[in-house]
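User: I've been going back and forth on whether these two constructs are worth ordering. Before I decide, could you fold them both?

Assistant: Sure. I'll take them in the order you sent them. The first construct and its structure tokens:
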Amino acid sequence: MRKTLLALDTDILKPWFDGARVIGVSVSEYIERILEQLVRPFDAACCLEDAIRDRLYLTRGEAELAADRFELHSVDGRLEGHDLPVAVADVIEKGGGRWGVEVDVRFY
């Protein structure tokens, strides 16, 4: 199996360090087990939807690119035969000069 090295904030990982210690496995093995539960396209799409809604962008242009990529990802998944919802993404002003993406998901 191919491995990818990730650099993550260790403060964010504290609950995962604790969980790994409790069950007696490495942190990477523990997180891999959790991520394996997201391998179904629908679950991964839900996580992506949450992530794009929570992200703030410095410019409208960055938010527009993210919205376009999100919509394309949704369409590509359906074309690949995955039972994913169709997503429409709109750019919205979040205040403080920041921009965000609002997602509307439709199940067909």
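The second construct, handled the same way:
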Amino acid sequence: MARRSPIVIGSVVAAILVVGAEVAFVLRPKHVGTPAPATAEEAPPDEAGAPAPPRPVFSPLPRPPVVSRPVPAAPPPPAAPPPPPEEVAPPPDVPAAPPVADQAAARAALRRRAVVMATHNVEVTKQADEKAFEALNLPDETRAAIRRINDDFTARKQDTLATAERAGAASDQTGPPIVISDEPEKGRKAALGQLLGADGAQKFDAAENAAVHRIRVQTRTSWLHTLQQQAPLLPLAPAAPPIAP
């Protein structure tokens, strides 16, 4: 058997060691360590062999404190505008005082006013009867009979008013200006009772009163204007002061 050369054997051993070292270096476990605290870095020794002085360690500059900016307050709501100045109404014009009438003229005006009002009431009653005819659905014969009763009532009422006006004018100045009798109203009511019976007359009277109320409400303004034109009231003269003895 041939003897191997020591040089070859040494080369093989060296190659094996090199490869083993490389494999051990690659496969070694890696350790994660905490970083060492910052220290003064040591400068490499100079050529004479004396150690270099340590370099100073500069700490990082402190951060400025965070100052929170104040949130601006909401602006106050706008003030309400001042109320407008109150308008002062001008003083009303004071009407001139009407002329003062004497006692006899004032009483005559009251009698005239009473006659006009009584005549107006008669006309309102006749208009209300026409409304009551429709509300109660009365036959034509009954309607014609009630109209004849109303015509007779109107004639009797006019005579009564004329008599009362003459009597009031002839009376002295101490009593009422006029006294109007209600005999025509009583005669009309009795005639309606004989025509319609007690129950029918009661129903007709209720329907008539309701219609009279509606007519008065509807014509109140115009009627007051007409009354003031046809029979205005006259102011009475003040009484004369007594004569001292």
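Notes on the second construct follow. Residues 46 and 52 are 7 Å apart (CA to CA). The helical segments are 6-27, 103-136, 140-170, 183-218, 220-230.
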